[in-house]
């Protein structure tokens, strides 16, 4: 831990202009950060600002000055002990220890680990492994930020302020090259830990009070009908590419996310009231139910792999590769098909929401139910994408010859 610098100043202050009988305050400054408290004594005689004591010779003046010397000595003793024991040092920590409020400071990374351990014990019971990994990543970034900023292994919760938070945001963007929304996600994870600290009274005030999350709306890419047809009709001589293409198409016509198609089994297929087969499965991310009628293209893909070993070996309906491998092969597939967009497993879900459903008049409430969204506001993001598409199409129409001649 880097050595800190400390200074102690005593000064009288009063709500009135006159300093007569003003309360004497102690100001502790450590590494340019201050913390103050009342000494519970008053300056009844002339005050010497350079010496930080009263100049009178009365018994009361001598008694007050002795008390101030005792305060100064105890503060230095606390500071020396913290340095000697290699514990966090700040003006606020020293003040709290002097006042007997909190000798054992709760630490940020320590509390963050406790939180992550609780989530890990609840995987599959309200939390997903993806959520755990995001919190672990946020904690790791904070750990690296502390080493980058202060060469410390941890920081007391009471030391965290708005400056620390805004500095962390800048660090994520400048040193870790995080995109704006990615950085915001990590800070929101951090914010939850501080809310836990506030609820448990480990801190007196919320350092996030003046910080507001500012999400930037991203343009969601999707395949057009033409691109979807090109992809579906392309013949592949390499089995792994054909297999990944088929799973991608299945997601385009069901809206399932990678994690959900990966766990899809015969138990998730039911016979609907209309006599057709449906997929009814709980989303791994939100645990909400997705109810999806199986469209002909999706049905053809299920039939194509009806005898695949994955059915017997893992009780899965489709042979899904890892997400990393799937995304790597999808880039190769896009090149082969002449598609300039970046194909990912999640782009298939966007395609279902836009090209397959909303653009063909399926009501937003129905699409939201099929996608398993917890809020229709999430589904409305796809409608915004479609609005921009409609605007672009109409601009092209305006450039063509008018429908009616004047």
UniProtKB/TrEMBL annotation:
Span of domain Tyr recombinase: 218-395
InterPro entries: Arm-DNA-bind_5, CB, DNA_brk_join_enz, Integrase-like_cat_sf, Integrase_catalytic, Integrase_recombinase_N, SAM-like_dom, Tyrosine_recombinase_XerCD
Keywords of this entry: DNA integration, DNA recombination, DNA-binding
MF GO annotations: DNA binding
PROSITE patterns in the cross-refs: CB, TYR_RECOMBINASE
Keyword Magnesium attached: no
Annotated family: Belongs to the 'phage' integrase family.
Protein name: Site-specific recombinase XerD
């Amino acid at each position: 831990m880097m050595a800190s610098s400390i200074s102690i100043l005593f000064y009288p202050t009063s709500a009135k202009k006159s300093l007569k009988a003003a309360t004497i305050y102690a100001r502790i400054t450590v590494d340019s950060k201050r913390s103050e408290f009342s000494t519970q004594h008053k300056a009844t005689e002339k005050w010497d600002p350079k010496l930080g004591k009263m100049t009178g010779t009365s018994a009361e003046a001598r008694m007050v000055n002795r008390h101030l010397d005792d305060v100064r000595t105890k503060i230095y003793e606390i500071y020396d002990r913290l340095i000697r024991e290699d514990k966090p040092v700040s003006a606020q920590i020293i003040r709290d220890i002097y006042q007997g409020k909190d000798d054992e400071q709760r630490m940020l990374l320590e509390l963050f680990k406790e939180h992550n351990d609780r989530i890990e014990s609840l995987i599959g019971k309200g939390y997903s492994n993806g959520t755990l990994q995001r919190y672990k990543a946020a904690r790791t970034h904070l750990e690296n930020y502390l080493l980058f900023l202060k060469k410390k292994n941890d920081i007391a919760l009471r030391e965290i302020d708005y400056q620390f938070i805004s500095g962390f945001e800048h660090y994520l963007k400048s040193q870790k090259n995080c995109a704006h929304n990615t950085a915001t996600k990590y800070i929101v994870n951090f914010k939850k830990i501080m809310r836990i600290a506030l609820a448990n009274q480990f801190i007196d005030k919320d350092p996030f009070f003046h910080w507001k999350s500012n999400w930037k709306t991203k343009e969601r890419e999707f395949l057009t009908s033409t691109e979807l047809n090109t992809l579906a009709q392309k013949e592949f001589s390499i089995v792994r590419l054909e297999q990944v293409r088929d799973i991608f198409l299945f997601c385009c016509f069901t809206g399932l996310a990678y994690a959900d198609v990966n766990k899809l089994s015969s138990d998730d297929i039911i016979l609907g009231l209309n006599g057709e087969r449906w997929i009814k499965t709980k989303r791994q991310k939100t645990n909400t139910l997705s109810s999806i009628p199986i469209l002909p293209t999706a049905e053809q893909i299920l039939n194509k792999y009806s005898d695949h070993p994955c059915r017997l070996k893992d009780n899965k309906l489709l042979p899904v590769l890892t997400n990393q491998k799937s995304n790597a092969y999808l880039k190769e597939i896009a090149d082969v098909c002449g598609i300039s967009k970046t194909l990912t497993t999640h782009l298939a879900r966007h395609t279902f929401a836009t090209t397959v459903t909303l653009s063909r008049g399926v009501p937003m409430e129905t699409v939201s139910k099929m996608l398993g969204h917890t809020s229709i506001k999430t589904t409305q993001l796809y409608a915004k994408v479609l609005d921009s598409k409609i605007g672009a199409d109409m601009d092209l129409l305006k450039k063509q010859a008018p429908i009616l001649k004047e």
